[in-house]
């Protein structure tokens, strides 16, 4: 893992890779993240940089890998998944977040997007299913409750270096 | 230095009471040293002096560190002579270094009178994997033999303090163990880890005080060494997993469902390796090394008649000739009770290995099923359809843009479909037409199955006819007709089923289940028809003139024995002696007439079947995938319509077909390995090459599937099929072991009336007499029947409890539902 990380750094900084931070653009060149629609969110969630540029240090990198690995428990994965899906970082998934999520999932092209009516319907269904306290948003425990019943979650939420 | 230390100590002693529980100073982070590089993280304040832990120790002061909450470290410069004088610290750790280093930590409250622990701690750098290992503690504890140490300050620890201490230590240990699972940031985890580690370190020593300290310290050190060893071993094991990179590449191109096939293949490979190890190591090698060599016994020699062709490649490929009279097949083994100087009990070992392979396979399949069932989380739940689609449908392993596009498209489609389904209640128009079509489809499928069964039976009969008339008169096709027909059926019928299923108009997942079920029935039917025909053939070959019943084998035996005595007598140039008292004449084993050896024949059939199956698969891959891809790629320029989009286009990877093929292949191996110990070896070889060939074919000739669906739900389905096949495969072998007498002239059980008698023989001879008696009592029906009764009762009870749990679950779910809908 250290090797992969240091490859991302420009040559002159390689010796000091442990302390360096890799800018986001470099991280996104990793093949595992390249095709992922949530790449930006992932970088943002795992980055601990103070200046908000979403750069990642080696520790952040390790953090990310450990959460996505096979041995992480479903709890931890769902915790981080929630944070990744929470586009505005407010601790809940509200309608806007869900809409953004769906748009991410359906791809970049215009023709593959859902129409407004379909989107409405979809979000309505989702909220019906998962929102237990009927507040119009999904918070962490509701999310974890939904996702923990799914048999596919652990196997799909996985990145292997 | 010393005086400074003393100063620190005294001031620390005063500060003892101020010590707070949560913050602990400590040394440098172990992870840092573990990585072996100085990571100047902010919290360490960039002090590099403590790097010396890796190497030389300084005889100076250690740094103290204090941590309050996340990411903050206030480091205490050990070099300050006023070390310990930081007013904002609530905790002080004093460190002394004598020869090399010594650490002393004062403990927090409740220990005012406690003496200082003196330990020497060497934190050796760990080799760490990329995950944070929370349990890593490696140190040597030594008492620092220094005079100025306040050794003498030990004061008795009261019992309750000890108990409380123990509790806290346990708590910290638990924290360390579960640290990996907490969703905190790395920094926080590391800091908490350090804290907990230091705490435990300190007090483990305390606990051991006065109770054989040295031994305790030694024990602790050994535990740590053992943990380190375990971790290194885990790393090594992970690195050893074969084909990891290949599978990963496939995963990123095709998604997890195609990769699951290759993971299954790898798992099968593992099982076969173990089976191979068993049969090779315990059956083939002893016989080869210690048994009588080739040519010493009639059963071990190629008969004179066949000698001329015995070495031809064609004969060897057909597994007769030299291959037949070798350790590869049942017939070679001698029925001597022990062989060689090791007194290796060959027949016993053969029997036990046969039983053991089956037993091991059962165990491992059931274990995997149980594990999968756990992960599944209780079956099909459709209450969160949309949310799951939303949150879990993206496969994070995909690294290839083309696959990602496919995935996007499929997700979009599935959303739209689901919305539409949800919106309109399905109007059952033409329900009668649908039903009629489904019944028709099932009828057609049944016809196909019956047809294929009959075809196999017919072909096997024909091959018997050919055998009777002598195989030399016929070409290659006639000789291998059975195998070819079976393989071809296996190739074409599934496609037929696919076409039929389009009549049925089911939801894709249900259609897949029907498809798999039908293919399963097809293969099963084929296999069993084959076996039945084979049994018939055994009866047929055993005696050419008498009608077909198995019991006539007894007669056959008598006939051959009689023939042999006549033949022997002819050697004496005399009449048939009543009791042959004459010295045995030296006869070349090749000339002795042989009895029939149906076990070897069966083994040969299975081996031939496996080989031809393999060949067919490979050729199908080459033609069906590779040539097709080449054709489409190169002829696209000069063809009327777009080959890549229309027919035939590139082929997709057929997961279910391949998995089923694999499962049935394994079934054949299980069936045949008792009669041909070489089968697992052949299978290992086949799987190995299969892996490489299919990986290559997939990457180069296949395109990602259009409907990307999850493999996870089918996982247990495949396991269940494997279990079923295993059970069915063992039936014929068990039947033959228990009720058919072995051939009198070949194999390790020749001369016995039943194969399992080898067990009773062993009990008589090799075990002390009381053992035999005990066994006799244990196998008394009076004991076995109650045991069976007990097992039945416990199964019933467990079933009842699991049902009640399921119902309780359902109740809770309903409650949740009603709360939601309120």
Automatic annotation (TrEMBL), chain A:
- The EF-hand domain is annotated at 73-108, 118-153
Per the record, the domain of life is: Eukaryota
This entry's Gene Ontology molecular function terms read:
calcium ion binding; magnesium ion binding
Which InterPro entries does the protein's record reference?
A: CIBP (IPR051433), EF-hand-dom_pair (IPR011992), EF_Hand_1_Ca_BS (IPR018247), EF_hand_dom (IPR002048)
Alphabetical UniProt keywords = Calcium, Integrin, Magnesium, Metal-binding, Repeat
Any one biological process term the GO annotation gives:
integrin-mediated signaling pathway
Gene3D superfamilies for this protein: EF-hand (1.10.238.10)
Mention any Pfam family matching this sequence: EF-hand_7
Endpoints of the signal sequence: none
Note whether Transmembrane helix occurs among the keywords. no
Q: Which protein, by its recorded name, is this?
A: Calcium and integrin-binding protein 1
Q: Give the organism the record lists.
A: Cuculus canorus
Automatic annotation (TrEMBL), chain B:
Q: Which family does it belong to?
A: Belongs to the TMC family.
* Sections of the chain in a coiled coil: none
Tell me what topology the record assigns in the membrane: Multi-pass membrane protein
From start to end residue, where is composition biased (Basic residues)? 27-43, 58-71, 126-144
Mind telling me which residue stretches traverse the membrane in this protein?
267-289, 310-333, 348-366, 436-460, 484-503, 515-535, 717-738, 774-798
Where is the sequence biased in composition, kind Basic and acidic residues?
Answer: 17-26, 84-99, 115-125
Subcellular localization: Membrane
Know the name of this protein? Transmembrane channel-like protein
**What are the record's GO terms for cellular component?**
plasma membrane
**What InterPro entries does the annotation carry?**
TMC, TMC_dom
């Amino acid at each position: 893992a250290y090797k992969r990380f240091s490859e991302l750094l420009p040559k002159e900084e390689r010796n000091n890779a442990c302390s360096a931070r890799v800018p986001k653009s470099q991280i996104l060149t990793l093949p595992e993240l390249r095709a992922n629609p949530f790449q930006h969110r992932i970088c943002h969630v795992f980055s601990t940089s103070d200046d908000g540029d979403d750069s990642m240090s080696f520790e952040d990198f390790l953090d990310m890998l450990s959460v996505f690995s096979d041995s992480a428990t479903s709890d931890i994965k769902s915790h981080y998944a929630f944070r990744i899906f929470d586009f505005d970082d407010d601790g809940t998934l509200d309608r806007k977040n869900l809409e953004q999520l769906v748009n991410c999932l359906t791809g970049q092209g215009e023709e593959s997007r859902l129409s407004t009516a379909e989107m409405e319907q979809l979000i309505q269904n989702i909220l019906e299913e998962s929102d237990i306290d009927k507040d119009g948003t999904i918070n962490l425990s509701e999310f974890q409750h939904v996702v923990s019943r799914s048999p596919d979650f652990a196997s799909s939420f996985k990145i292997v270096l | 230095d010393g005086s400074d230390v003393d100063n620190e100590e005294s001031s620390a002693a005063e500060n003892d009471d101020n010590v707070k529980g949560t913050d602990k100073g400590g040394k440098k982070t172990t992870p840092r040293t573990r990585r072996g590089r100085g990571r100047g993280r902010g919290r360490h304040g960039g002090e590099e002096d403590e790097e010396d832990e890796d190497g030389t120790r300084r005889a100076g002061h250690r740094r103290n560190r204090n941590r309050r909450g996340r990411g903050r470290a206030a480091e205490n410069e050990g070099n300050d002579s006023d070390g310990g004088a930081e007013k904002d610290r609530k905790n002080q750790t004093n460190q002394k270094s004598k020869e090399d280093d010594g650490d002393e930590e004062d403990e927090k409250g409740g220990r005012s009178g406690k003496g200082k622990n003196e330990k020497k701690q060497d934190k050796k750098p760990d080799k760490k994997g990329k995950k944070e290992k929370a349990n890593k503690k490696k140190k040597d504890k030594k008492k620092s033999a220094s005079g100025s140490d306040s050794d003498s300050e030990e004061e008795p620890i009261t019992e309750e303090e000890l108990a409380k201490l123990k509790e806290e230590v346990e708590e910290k240990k638990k924290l360390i163990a579960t640290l990996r699972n907490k969703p905190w940031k790395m920094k926080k985890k590391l800091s908490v880890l350090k804290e907990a580690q230091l705490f435990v370190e300190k007090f483990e020593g305390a606990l051991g005080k006065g109770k054989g300290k040295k031994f305790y310290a030694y024990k602790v050190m050994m535990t740590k060494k053992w943990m380190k060893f375990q971790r290194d071993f885990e790393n090594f094991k992970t690195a050893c997993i074969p084909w990891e990179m290949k599978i990963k590449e496939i995963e990123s191109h095709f998604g997890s469902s195609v990769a699951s096939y290759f993971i299954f293949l790898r798992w099968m490979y593992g099982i076969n390796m173990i089976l191979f190890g068993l049969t090779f190591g315990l059956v083939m090698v002893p016989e080869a090394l210690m048994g009588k060599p080739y040519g010493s016994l009639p059963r071990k020699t190629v008969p004179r008649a066949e000698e001329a062709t015995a070495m031809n490649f064609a004969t060897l490929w057909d597994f007769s000739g030299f291959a037949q009279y070798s350790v590869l097949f049942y017939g070679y083994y001698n029925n001597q009770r022990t062989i060689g100087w090791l007194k290796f009990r060959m027949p016993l070992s053969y029997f036990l290995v046969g039983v053991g392979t089956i037993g091991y396979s059962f165990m491992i399949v059931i274990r995997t099923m149980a594990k999968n069932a756990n992960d599944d989380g209780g079956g099909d739940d459709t209450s969160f359809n949309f949310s799951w689609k939303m949150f879990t449908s993206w496969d994070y392993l995909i690294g290839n843009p083309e696959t990602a596009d496919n995935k996007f498209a499929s997700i979009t489609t599935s959303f739209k479909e689901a919305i539409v389904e949800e919106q309109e209640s399905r109007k059952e128009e033409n329900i009668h037409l649908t039903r009629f079509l489904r019944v028709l489809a099932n009828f057609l499928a049944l016809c196909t199955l019956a047809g294929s069964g009959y075809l196999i039976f017919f072909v096997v009969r024909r091959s018997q006819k050919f055998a009777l008339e002598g195989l030399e008169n016929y070409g290659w096709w006639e000789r291998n007709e059975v195998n070819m027909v079976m393989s071809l059926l296996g190739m074409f019928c599934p496609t037929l089923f696919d076409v039929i299923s389009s009549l049925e108009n089911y939801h894709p997942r249900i259609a897949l289940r029907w498809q798999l079920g039908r293919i399963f029935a097809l293969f099963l039917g084929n296999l069993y028809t084959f076996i039945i025909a084979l049994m018939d053939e055994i009866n047929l070959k055993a005696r050419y003139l008498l009608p077909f019943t198995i019991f006539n084998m007894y007669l056959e035996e008598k006939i051959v024995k009689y023939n042999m005595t006549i033949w022997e007598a002819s050697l004496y140039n005399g009449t048939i002696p009543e009791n042959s008292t004459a010295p045995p004449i030296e006869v070349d084993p090749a000339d002795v007439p042989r009895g029939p050896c149906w076990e070897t024949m069966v083994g040969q059939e299975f081996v031939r079947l496996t080989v031809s199956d393999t060949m067919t698969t490979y050729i199908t891959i080459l033609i069906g995938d590779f040539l097709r891809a080449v054709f489409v790629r190169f002829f696209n320029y000069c063809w009327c319509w777009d080959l890549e989009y229309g027919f035939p286009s590139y082929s997709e990877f057929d997961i279910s077909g391949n998995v089923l093929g694999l499962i049935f292949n394994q079934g054949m191996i299980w069936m045949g390995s008792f009669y041909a110990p070489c089968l697992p070896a052949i299978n290992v070889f086949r799987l190995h090459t299969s892996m490489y060939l299919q990986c290559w074919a997939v990457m180069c000739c296949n395109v990602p599937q259009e409907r990307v669906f999850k493999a996870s739900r089918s996982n247990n389905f495949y396991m269940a099929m494997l279990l079923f096949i295993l059970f069915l495969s063992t039936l014929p072998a068990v039947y033959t072991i228990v009720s058919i007498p072995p051939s009198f002239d070949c194999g390790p059980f020749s001369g016995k009336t039943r194969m399992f008698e080898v067990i009773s023989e062993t009990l008589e001879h090799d075990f002390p007499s009381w053992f035999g008696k005990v066994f006799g009592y244990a196998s008394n029906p009076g004991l076995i029947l109650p045991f069976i009764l007990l097992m039945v009762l416990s199964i019933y009870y467990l079933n009842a409890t699991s049902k009640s749990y399921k119902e309780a679950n359902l109740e809770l779910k309903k409650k949740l539902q009603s709360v939601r809908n309120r």
